[in-house]
Structures are given as structure tokens and as C-alpha cells.
Amino acid sequence: MLGLSSLLSQELASRNWSLRELATRSGIAVSTLSNLINKPDVMPDLRTLNALSISLNLPIRQLVEACGIPVDAHPSDEDATIQALITAVPEVRMFLNLLGQLSPDDRAAILSHLRWKVETSTNA
């Protein structure tokens, strides 16, 4: 298993991308990316891993494992459903990325609105 530093270096090389290119695509500062590559003991937060997952088109699970965090080898049915939704509905990945950038109160408001929208759409 590659560490995150090695994985990122390999992905950049395979795409012929610079740190600046990855920074532009991911929204992560060049200095942060440089630290992730040059200081293997740096542990990124989940938001950073999510941005890397999206910009590199890699499963977040692979990035988490590259950080040395064991991930359950047998995903739950819920995990499989979520992954299927992300694969089948392109907007889900973007929605989750945006949702993760909101405050807890804003996320609660969005979920409340979605529940209302589903209830009113189903009952119509």
C-alpha cells in the first residue's frame, strides 16, 4: 500500500500535472499539497481528502487507506448504496462536496428542505 505522499506523487506524475494544476483542480492550497507530499507525517482533514478524491477521480477509501487509516474491508449495504448513487447520479458527488463545506446548522437546514421537498413531491 502506498502512503498518501507516494500516492499523490504517483498520480501527479501519471497525469503530468504540477502541484499548481492539482491545486487549481482541487481548491487546495499549493503549500498544503506540498506538505502532503514532502512531509509524510502530515494528516489531511476529510475535506482535503474529499477534494483530492474528486479532482483525482480516486475513491476516497483509497486516499484514507493511504493515510494509514484502516477501512472496513466489508462495506455495509448503506455504503454500497451510497457508492452506487455517487456513480449513477453525477450531481450526488458535487452535492456531497458542497454539503461538506457548510456549517452544521446550514446542513440541517438543507436536509430539512430536502425532506420537505420529497414529502411535497411524493404527495402531489
Features:
mainly alpha, elongated, 73% helix, 124 residues
Describe this structure as you would to a colleague.
With 124 residues, the chain is mostly helical. It contains eight helices and no strands. The protein has helices at 4-15, 19-26, 30-38, 46-56, 60-66, 77-88, 90-100, 104-123. The radius of gyration is 17 Å and the shape is elongated.
Compile the SSE list and pairings.
Blueprint: H1 4-15, H2 19-26, H3 30-38, H4 46-56, H5 60-66, H6 77-88, H7 90-100, H8 104-123
Helix pairs in contact: 6-7
The rounded Rg comes to 17 Å
- The share of residues in extended strands comes to under 5%
The total count of helices amounts to 8
Mean pLDDT: 86
Percent of residues in helices comes to over 70%
- The quaternary organization reads as single chain
The gross shape turns out to be elongated
- What is the H/E order? HHHHHHHH
C-alpha termini separation: 51 Å
User: Which regions have little confidence, pLDDT < 50, spanning 5+ residues?
Assistant: none
Find the count of extended strands (DSSP E, 2+ residues).
Answer: 0
Largest sheet data: none
Entry summary:
The protein has 124 residues and is mostly helical. It has helices at 4-15, 19-26, 30-38, 46-56, 60-66, 77-88, 90-100, 104-123. The chain is 73% helix and 0% strand.
